[in-house]
Amino acid sequence: MTDPRDRDPYFSEERTDSQPHPAPPPQRPPQYPQGYDPNLPPLQPQSPYPPLPQPSRARQDIPSAHVVRPPKRTPKSGWRKALYMGSGKLINPGESPAERRQRELIGRVNQPLRGCFKIAMLSLKGGVGKTTITTTLGATFASLRGDRVIAVDANPDRGTLSQKIPIETTATIRHLLRDADKITRYSDVRAYTSQGASRLEILASEQDPAVSEAFSERDYLRAVSLLEHYYNIVLTDCGTGLMHSAMKGVLDLADALVVVSSGSVDGATSASATIDWLEAHGYGDLVKRSIVVINSVRPKAGSVDLDKLAAHFAARARTVCRIPFDPHLEEGAEIELDRLEPDTRLALLELAAAMADAFPSKA
């Protein structure tokens, strides 16, 4: 047998623990300050480091925004822009009142929104431009905000919402519901929608009336419960009837309501009847959060006093917005915001800002 001393040069027969360890000194009972209760939680140990300097209460920092004069914004149009550019950008008359108003409206439209805000678009009468208002309102939101906006066609009678933007897919809400279990990300949903230049997406309804009639409240609830995971604003273009099967689901989920009326007597009467029906069926709180849109579908209002009409609805709804007649919207084809008249763009901006004011202030 080989001697371990020949095998390992670092081998030693001496034990490193040959000396016995001294016994630990007896522990003294802890000393507590007078009045201290040992049953209470232990005191925080004192830090071995000196305390860090703390700001004095008497010191008051001056925010830079209070002492630094903000630069004057440059004009975007009109004689102000001509003067600014003609002077080699040396003379800056600043923004016009209209430009300041537009910037303020855009700021309201861009209010923070956490979660999903659902808007129901209603009208008892056809031909008042409900689908057009749905598209233009959604497109205004989508073009200005960074989040996702979608309009859902819940019309059981072959809705025309999908005709307002370029068609990218023939898929409908029926196909989305059929494949709901396979959808796990936004790109999956995107395969069932079409998107316009404004970034507004549209989920079309079934074009076969025999099939679309079966679209039920449960179907709508399933669709919205899926969409609210991927979109911040969902607009629902409802049918002209209030009694079809999906309407209860639309109203129960809606955070806000838009009632669309034309500038005619019969259009206003139908809009007023819509509000009456909602209040009679327990949706009074929703009516208080609603916006009535008076949409001018004809170049001239005729003998109807639109100011009195607006005053009538202002007493019943949260606010009233008026959309002027626009030749591009009269075409009834695909809608491009850039082709709208300036007054129409401003009116839609005011409508979007009024709706954004209803966003929940605390998410």
From TrEMBL:
Residues 1-18 have a biased composition (Basic and acidic residues). Coiled coil: none annotated. Residues 69-79 have a biased composition (Basic residues). Residues 119-329 form the CobQ/CobB/MinD/ParA nucleotide binding domain. Residues 1-80 are annotated as: Disordered. Pfam families: CbiA (PF01656). It comes from the Bacteria. Residues 21-32, 39-54 have a biased composition (Pro residues). This is MinD/ParA family protein. It comes from Amycolatopsis acididurans. The lineage of its organism: Bacteria, Bacillati, Actinomycetota, Actinomycetes, Pseudonocardiales.
